[in-house]
């Protein structure tokens, strides 16, 4: 009994040290071999935030897969979307804790690279989830949605919905220097059949994927051009914020909003008519595959490599001709599974 309590105490101490370092408080660290005090291999998960439902689901998937494979999950996150320093600190701490692998959704896809390389140099396998690093091969592998395709699908949907009529388009983007945001934006333009600088693009604003910022960005865009009738959004929180602004302007039902994510709240937004269509992705699957890859690496040294497409599905409130989509019932059944 005393030995069991002692082991629990040690594991609790490691978790506490991790929490302190992520918060910016120095903590003692000791190098390890990838196994916890009870012999379990340790795997780290670093997300952009702890509160975004997308990353909450990702953490659930990672925990379930870690439990199924007998691994110990250590999770950390930035204080906000774009908190590169918080993620750097988390990597440093996980190196010291002796994890066998790190799964990360990088906030700053270029600035994080030197610290990722430090982890790889220490023999840790690093896998990017959802968001590729810049360059992509800075990690051992990438498990993610094809974000360009996700944008392309909603762009093609919008083009078919407008049936050749011109549009006044607002793009509510993520933030500069984040590959996932640029890929979705560029994919939308291709799907709609236009290029950057097209006169139909009347307003663009960054939202950091936040609902309140999405609302204020849309309010500003509507002040700039009250005739906006098509809105591309980086994710569903931004889309729901945009809808609030559109509704307040008395233009509900006149503006088509398309998005990416396919979370349960977002699919409800499609059912309610707030979002016309969204590209559904599967963060739980990303995390599950990532943890399983670390388990395989720990078992026999097999390293994951390259890009694994975890899938994307267009979910639409009303289908359009020529663009394959699923209905709301499908979206609800598969939201972030």
Short description:
45% of the residues lie in helices and 17% in strands. It has eleven helices and twelve strands.
Can you describe what's shown?
With 337 residues, this protein is of the alpha/beta class. It folds into two domains: 2-144 and 282-304, Response regulator (Rossmann fold); 147-280 and 313-334, Response regulator (Rossmann fold), CATH 3.40.50.2300. Helices cover 45% and strands 17% of the residues. Residues 1-33 have low confidence and may be disordered. The strands form two sheets. Strands 2-1-3-4-5-11 form a six-stranded parallel beta sheet, with helices on both faces. The two termini are 39 Å apart. Helix 2 links the parallel strand 1 and strand 2 (72-77). The longest helix is centred in the N-terminal third of the chain and has 21 residues, at 2-22. It contains eleven helices and twelve strands.
């Amino acid at each position: 009994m005393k030995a069991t309590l002692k082991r629990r105490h040690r594991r609790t101490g490691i978790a506490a040290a991790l929490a302190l370092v992520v918060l910016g408080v120095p903590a003692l660290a000791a190098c390890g071999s990838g196994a916890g005090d009870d012999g379990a291999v340790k795997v780290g998960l670093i997300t952009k935030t702890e509160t975004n439902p997308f990353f909450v689901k990702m953490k659930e998937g990672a925990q379930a897969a870690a439990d199924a494979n007998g691994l110990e999950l250590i999770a950390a996150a930035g204080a906000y979307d774009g908190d590169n320093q918080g993620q750097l600190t988390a990597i440093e701490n996980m190196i010291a804790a002796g994890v066998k692998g790190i799964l990360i959704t990088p906030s700053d896809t270029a600035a994080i690279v030197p610290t990722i390389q430090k982890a790889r140099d220490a023999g840790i396998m690093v896998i990017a989830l959802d968001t590729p690093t810049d360059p992509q091969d800075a990690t051992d592998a990438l498990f993610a949605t094809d974000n360009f395709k996700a944008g392309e699908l909603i762009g093609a949907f919008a083009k078919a919905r407008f049936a050749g009529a011109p549009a006044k388009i607002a793009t509510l983007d993520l933030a500069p220097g984040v590959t996932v945001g640029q890929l979705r934006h560029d994919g939308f333009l291709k799907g709609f059949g236009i290029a950057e600088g097209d006169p139909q693009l009347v307003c663009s604003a960054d939202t950091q994927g936040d609902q309140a910022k999405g609302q204020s960005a849309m309010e500003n865009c509507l002040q700039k051009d009250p005739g906006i009738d098509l809105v591309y959004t980086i994710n569903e929180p931004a889309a729901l914020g945009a809808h609030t602004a559109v509704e307040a302007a008395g233009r509900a039902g006149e503006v088509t909003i398309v998005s990416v994510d396919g979370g349960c709240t977002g699919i409800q937004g499609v059912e309610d008519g707030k979002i016309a269509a969204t590209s559904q992705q599967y963060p739980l699957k990303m995390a599950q595959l990532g943890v399983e890859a670390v388990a395989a690496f720990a078992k026999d040294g097999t390293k994951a490599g390259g890009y694994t497409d975890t899938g994307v599905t267009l979910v639409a409130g009303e289908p359009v001709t020529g663009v394959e989509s699923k209905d709301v019932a499908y979206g609800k059944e598969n939201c972030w599974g």
